[in-house]
Amino acid sequence: MSGVSSINDALRVEHVTLELGGRAILNDASFTVQTGEFIGVLGPNGAGKTTLMRALLGLLPLTGGSIRVNGEAVVRGNPSIGYMPQIRSGLAGRRVRGRDFVAMAADGHHWGLPHASAAIRADVDRVLDLVDAHALAARPLSELSGGERQRLLLAQCLLGNPKVLLLDEPLISLDPRHQTGVVDLVRRVQRELNITVLFSAHELNPLLNSLDRVLYLGNGRAALGTVDEVITKPVLSQLYGSPIDVMRVNGRIFVMSGDVEIEKLDHAHEEGDDGHEHEHEHDHGHDHGHGHKAKGKHTHNV
Ligand SMILES: Nc1ncnc2c1ncn2[C@@H]1O[C@H](COP(=O)(O)OP(=O)(O)O)[C@@H](O)[C@H]1O
Ligand SMILES: [Mg+2]
After folding, report:
1. CA within 20 to 30 Å of 67's CA: 1, 55, 100, 236, which one?
2. Per-residue pLDDT tens for 199-246?
3. Is the C-beta atom of 81 inside 6 A of ligand 1?
4. Which CATH number fits domain 9-80+162-257: 3.40.50.2000, 3.40.50.300, 2.40.50.140, 3.40.190.10?
């Protein structure tokens, strides 16, 4: 939130306006994320979490303002960003072995052709190590649990040694135990590599022990700060555009609108809604990421 630029800025978002279908999803938003921060990205369904990540990837033009990623202008296919898109359906049915699945996301382009395959093998080994997934490497995806598949998806994002990870709702459809496992794993890897993580989620509580700061989106605005700074009645009421209460119970935080817990409300909404996430020309016979892949080479997967 400081006005001074620093070499430690992983993301610098200044007066950014993002529009979709003629509507401002973000309106003159400014915030700065430091290198090595774990940022929980929260906000009601449709607040623009996915849209913001797509803008950081250069997949969506800015209507106004500027974004720097590690001090550089946004570019498509930025090798310093690892991206886990929100759409990940269809993985559970796949017979492909864990290792091959991770390797599919490797892009030989980073290494130059002659040595590509050896370099890719080494990098696949490195990322499998990082997420402790060697035991999963020989097993088909279809035999893995949701949490185990998530570990391999994280491995994919780590290929090529990115400095920033954009993880879009990695906890969706995981049970609470696996959710904790995924958050802990991301936190451990993030610290080990001193990389920056943007981790979007519906619910704050699974992230509470791991995040450094929260980026809360709503009503076209963005609030970045510590949990104590952002998860407050005045800040959230402004972001939701309606009166919000914040309750703390046994180390957990509940964001309430009237007597309804707002995150549960969102979630219920999403489950019945096949909505805009399939806006891209998406091939449902395959896994996630195709729509993105067609536009940039970020998405890992086939
Ligand atoms: N291609 C599109 N055209 C118009 N509106 C869109 C498009 N894609 C998403 N939206 C809208 O943009 C808003 C932000 O969406 P999104 O970034 O997916 O929110 P979140 O990830 O926070 O749930 C939503 O209101 C959504 O309906
Ligand atoms: Mg989203």
Report:
1. 236
2. 999 999 999 999 999 999 999 999 999 999 999 999 999 999 999 999
3. no
4. 3.40.50.300
